[in-house]
Design a protein that fits this description.
By secondary structure, this protein is of the alpha+beta class. The protein has 19 helices and ten strands. Strands 3-9-4-10-2-1-6-5 form an eight-stranded mixed β-sheet. Strand 1 and strand 2 form a beta hairpin.
């Protein structure tokens, strides 16, 4: 276990707010106890992670690294961090005997304990991630990993026949059944808006199943799409909510400095005279050379609060692309977690319901837009439909407004709303569903508008385009054609 202790100040901005701990630490040390949960696909075939940070921008890291080369240059913005979960690993201890003068401001020490996760195997790390996902969504504990997920991994890894189960040997006989049972509803878990967590859990669980079979012969830090480095970022005791590029650049800068003659001599002295372990001595030298970065640590373990802080900071200060913002706020939390901050997100000007509506239509296999819309991830295709384009179409259907044809003044969506919606059987259950009126039922996030939207655009695709021939002039999948 690695132990770190820092002088710190703990403040509470309001009586009901969470504590903030302000301190500074070497960038190299921060990297030992803080993880950056990124929103991305780990590998071409893997599922989307539940992280909420952007993927690293190499150009931005280089620019900040160049800035750091001048020791006079400083960046005042602190890294924003939070606790990953309740534990005894991160503790603030006040050094003041009497806090009566200002109970909301306290001086003391922050102790951080971090397990050396690099010593664990990839299998052990994945098992911990799986447990963490089940802690967030308890219903996952009773789920079974789809056989097809395990088969696909074995085929890609070319696992020898001796490692395959009897179920896998009957693959040909079961293939048709497996293809028909592709839907999440067959898993006995209702996760309409939590499918992102279910997908990631299934992927992690499938990797665990395969690695469990080959653990006696497998000894590597990477298996197919998952590496120890990527998985460890989800297991550190502290989460970096904002500032990953500043941190990464400071680490790169420290490694550069440690290669200079002055630090090389210190390293040689530590190894030759002090008999220090070369690897530990290298880390210590880098930690001494690294910048001391300011940190604002939110003493809160709730993923919902962490995503809220990330979204507000990045929407209000340095806006991120609408597609990625929508993806992050829709696919980083469970339904229960999202509910806790939904009103605050909406009050902060974040279009939460719009993002959730669009995200559903990009992820549902029943949607004609499944897999065809940009999500702000590095894996997006260059021909993906723009997020805001789909959002504008969704808005017409949900709001029943602005449905005008080019060069016409008639709002056909509004006209249909006034002339046909009140008498439509589509919304006849609005009272029993607990809505104030028929339109409120129609407009609700999971309301009838969604089935109508999918049916309408599926018909448009099937009647007016060719979804199978990407060379056709009316191919469904290239919005620019």
């Amino acid at each position: 276990m690695l132990n770190f202790k820092y002088k710190a100040v703990r403040i509470r901005q309001t009586n009901s707010g969470d504590w903030l701990v302000l301190f500074a630490a070497s960038a190299i040390e921060i990297d030992m106890w803080a993880g950056v949960p990124q929103k991305k696909k780990i590998g071409e075939h893997s599922k989307e992670t539940t992280g909420f940070q952007r993927e690293e921008n190499k150009k931005r890291i280089k620019e900040i690294t160049d800035f750091y080369r001048n020791e006079q240059n400083i960046i005042q913005n602190p890294l924003l961090c939070a606790l990953r979960q309740e534990s005894e690993l991160v503790i603030f201890e006040s050094s003041e005997i009497d806090n009566s003068i200002s109970e909301s401001i306290q001086h003391g020490f922050l102790t951080v304990k971090a397990e050396f996760l690099e010593k664990l195997s990839l299998l052990e790390l994945l098992k911990r991630v799986k447990v963490d996902l089940e802690r967030r969504v308890p219903e996952l504990v009773n789920q079974q990993v789809p056989d097809k997920n395990i088969r696909e991994l074995k085929e890609r890894a070319e696992i020898p026949h001796s490692f395959q189960t009897s179920q896998d040997e009957s693959y040909d006989n079961e293939q048709e059944i497996a293809e028909d049972s592709d839907d999440d509803t067959d898993l006995g878990l209702s996760l309409t808006d939590e499918s992102h967590i279910l997908d990631f859990w299934q992927d992690v669980a499938a990797y665990i199943s395969v690695l469990d079979e080959i653990k006696d012969t497998f000894n590597s830090d990477k298996f197919l799409d998952y590496s120890k480095e990527a998985i460890i970022s989800f297991l550190r005791p502290i989460v970096v909510v904002d500032g990953q590029h500043r941190l990464r650049a400071a680490i790169e800068s420290a490694k550069e400095l440690a290669r200079q003659d002055k630090y090389k001599e210190l390293l040689e002295q530590a190894i030759l005279n002090d008999k220090a372990d070369p690897e530990k001595a290298q880390v210590q030298i880098e930690a001494e050379a690294a910048r001391k970065l300011p940190i604002s640590l939110l003493m809160n373990t709730d993923p919902a609060e962490q995503v809220f802080q990330f979204v507000v900071v990045n929407q209000k200060a340095t806006p991120i692309k609408t597609a990625l913002l929508g993806t992050i706020i829709s696919t980083s939390l469970s339904n229960e977690e999202l509910t806790r901050v939904s009103e605050r997100l909406e009050s902060a000007g974040i279009k939460l319901e719009e993002s959730r509506a669009v995200t559903f239509l990009t992820r549902s296999r029943y949607s004609p837009f499944y897999g065809l819309v940009e999500r702000g991830l590095a894996s997006d295709g260059k021909d993906s439909l723009k997020w805001n384009v789909l959002a504008s179409i969704v808005k017409i259907f949900r709001d029943l407004k602005d449905g005008r044809l080019f060069h016409e003044n008639v709002d056909y969506a509004d006209k249909w709303n006034r002339s046909y919606l009140p008498s439509s059987k589509i919304i006849e259950k609005w009272e029993s569903e607990g809505h104030q009126n028929a339109f409120a039922y129609w407009h609700s996030l999971n309301g009838p508008w969604r089935d109508v939207f999918i049916s309408f655009w599926t018909s448009v695709r099937d009647k007016l385009s060719d979804p199978s021939n990407n060379e056709a002039w009316h191919y469904w999948g290239y919005p620019s054609i």
